[in-house]
Write a structure and sequence with these properties.
- This is Mobile element transfer protein.
- It holds the Pfam family SpdB.
- About 15% of the residues lie in helices and about 40% in strands.
- It is of the alpha+beta class and about 60 residues long.
- The chain has one domain.
- A four-stranded antiparallel beta sheet has the order 1-2-3-4, covered by helices on one side.
- A hairpin with a 2-residue loop joins strand 1 and strand 2.
- It binds zinc ion.
- The site of zinc ion has 7 residues, from loops.
């Protein structure tokens, strides 16, 4: 049974949302996910600053 990821500390930088969750082993992971239609950018990072940097520098593919 897959549990949905429970994000907290959600922020939005441009079209990209950054959230923190705990994985199955209880470690914090940080996801940057673009909300623009058809972009599909979504990546997990081990640190929050990396996720925020990715969000800040993300440009949607044309
Ligand atoms: Zn995008």
């Amino acid at each position: 049974m897959a549990r949905p990821k429970r994000f907290h500390k959600m922020i939005r930088i441009g079209p990209v949302e950054v959230g923190t969750y705990r994985d199955d082993r209880g470690r914090e992971k940080h996801t940057a996910a673009c909300t623009a239609p058809r972009c599909g950018f979504s990546t997990d990072y081990a640190d929050r600053s990396a996720a925020e940097l990715a969000a800040r520098t993300h440009h949607c593919a044309p």
